[in-house]
Amino acid sequence: MPFDPIRSLAKARHEFGEHGGVNMSIEASTTFTVMQAGTMPDIFGGHVGPETEGGGCYLYGRHFNPTVYALGRSLAALEGTEAAYCTASGMAAISGAVIQLCQPGDEIVTARTIYGGTHALFENFLPDRMGVKVRFVDAADPAQVATAMTDKTRLVYCETVSNPTLDVANIPELARIAHARDARLVVDNTFSPLIVSPAQHGADIVVHSLTKFIGGCSDIIAGAICGSREFITSLMDTHHGALMLLGPTMTPASAFDLSLRIPHLGLRIPEHSRRALLFAERLADRGVPVWYPGLPDHPGHGLLKGMMNEGFGFGGIFGIDAGTRDKAFALLDTLQNKHRFGYDAVSLGYFETLMSCSGASTSSELSEDEQRAAGILPGYVRVSIGYTGDAEDRWAQFESALVEVGVLSKTTA
Ligand code: PLP
After folding, report:
1. 223-243 pLDDT, tens digit each
2. Pocket of ligand 1 (CB under 6 A)
3. Which domains are seen in the chain, by residue range?
4. Would you give the DSSP letter of residue 51?
């Protein structure tokens, strides 16, 4: 039977509250007692802990915390991985996972169209501070990935659906290429939780910014790393673990808040997707250049259809080309300030619509040449569609703004 993330989540162990509460309690302690002094060195040595046989045995809040660990178990169930742990941000999850896998002299092969912050980590921070060489390729062409691999390549990196241009990664093929050279495939699944389960297609490690769709309310910055029990345990190693030693710790209160968002993720994602498809189809009908993997002529449409889980649609994000940066800005101003359609703000996955001109915001870490190579046009506007209000009213606002700023002519509208 194919993997079903909703069934998997339903089977995950439920954590009751301290007094039998239906919601788990928040374990707000920064430190934990042991009942026998001899247990302490065993925890430090990694011989006992929540991921070892018997479970339990917590040490200190920067190491495993029970509430954060319970949220991690939900994310492992959602992605179908053995284990998962949560971090203070999506960037902490990405940098933690990558740093754990690489040493000076190692190499990374990455898709060139990725979130601007990750791009900067790969282009500047890792080479300059850690001596890790990063090769950027067009991952839509797996042959380019294979050619860029060397004996020093430790990991291949991509986003399932890329930020901001919505390229779709061929995860099975990238996994095959990575594994043939004994490298790991790390996939950022932030744009497509539930929609695609990268680990089921060969990804070794799946990272998330929980700040986006999974959090869903634009109120918490958070991240997660999903992978094998061995990898998650290694991140907390008291001598070599990237999470233990760099310390990007999620607070238990955030873990509790986020745990309450997971049960209805399966209801929210289809509505984001339904509205995004509605807008994308109408935009395409009216001749506006639109990017959405749910449209049959999107280059990644077939690929995504082949990987996606049933019932969640093609995701809540689409992009349009307003033609020029000035027109993009005028569109954002009109949509936000005149029509109250949504917000000109970075981020995504909120219940309200968030929109921004990618080249001038979340991809501005890329140079003009890099933006061109990544397919990010100056007037490209990324829209994370919300689900408040009536969908037809929202479309009327959007169409009207497109006409007002001259992206669409009155006759075509
Ligand atoms: N991954 C993707 C695809 C993103 O879009 C972002 C942020 O926009 C991140 C990771 C970073 O997440 P965070 O802001 O939670 O650190």
Report:
1. 999 999 999 999 999 999 999
2. 89-91, 115, 117, 159, 163, 188, 190-191, 209, 211, 221, 223, 347, 362
3. 5-263 (3.40.640.10), 266-404 (3.90.1150.10)
4. T
